[in-house]
Amino acid sequence: MIRVVLAEDQGMVLGAFASLLDLQADITVVATATNGDDALVAVRELRPDVLVTDIEMPGRTGLDLAVELNRLGNPTRVLIVTTFARSGYLRRAVDAGVAGYVLKDAPIGELAAALRRVHAGERVVSPELAVAAWDAADPLTGRERELLRAVAEGAGNAAIAARLSLAEGTVRNYLSTAMAKLGARNRTDAAKIAQSRGWL
């Protein structure tokens, strides 16, 4: 029996996934969570075989969960199920040690098959996502991504400087470089472009 924790912030989708997966003879959903923090608690307590998770959720994202489980040495394998067919997300998922990345609009049979393959030690990527991975590479550095995430949250340069212990001029320089790389009109535009490509 493959033991699964399911993390999804949309209640209706969560309930549908849980019901459909429980219909599979060899899969049992041992816990569900509507945010990344609760999902992490469930995985640490229950040690499931596979965590099936969305990317964007309150608290920790699906990618954050994968990174944290790797850091903890937790053997639970991570399968991302998302609506986002973005090359940036896929690259970050691979870097985070995610074992599978499939789209939500796939039939439940495909999701179950992907889950079984991930459990068996394989790496699974939807064909549409594999094609998307050949899109433009992420040009941003880790620090530029960090600053653009703060911009996307509405933080001003002074607040970002204080949060990251940087000089305000340094923040401006990083953001100017990021804007040039993305061909953005301003810092807010740069954050939107980076988000739309899955780089944040």
UniProtKB/TrEMBL annotation:
<dbReference type="InterPro" id="IPR000792">
    <property type="entry name" value="Tscrpt_reg_LuxR_C"/>
</dbReference>
<dbReference type="GO" id="GO:0003677">
    <property type="term" value="F:DNA binding"/>
</dbReference>
<protein>
    <submittedName>
        <fullName>LuxR family two component transcriptional regulator</fullName>
    </submittedName>
</protein>
<feature type="domain" description="Response regulatory">
    <location>
        <begin position="3"/>
        <end position="119"/>
    </location>
</feature>
<dbReference type="InterPro" id="IPR001789">
    <property type="entry name" value="Sig_transdc_resp-reg_receiver"/>
</dbReference>
<dbReference type="InterPro" id="IPR039420">
    <property type="entry name" value="WalR-like"/>
</dbReference>
<dbReference type="InterPro" id="IPR011006">
    <property type="entry name" value="CheY-like_superfamily"/>
</dbReference>
<dbReference type="InterPro" id="IPR016032">
    <property type="entry name" value="Sig_transdc_resp-reg_C-effctor"/>
</dbReference>
<feature type="domain" description="HTH luxR-type">
    <location>
        <begin position="133"/>
        <end position="198"/>
    </location>
</feature>
<dbReference type="Pfam" id="PF00196">
    <property type="entry name" value="GerE"/>
</dbReference>
<dbReference type="GO" id="GO:0006355">
    <property type="term" value="P:regulation of DNA-templated transcription"/>
</dbReference>
<dbReference type="GO" id="GO:0000160">
    <property type="term" value="P:phosphorelay signal transduction system"/>
</dbReference>
<keyword id="KW-0238">DNA-binding</keyword>
<keyword id="KW-0597">Phosphoprotein</keyword>
<feature type="modified residue" description="4-aspartylphosphate">
    <location>
        <position position="54"/>
    </location>
</feature>
<dbReference type="Pfam" id="PF00072">
    <property type="entry name" value="Response_reg"/>
</dbReference>
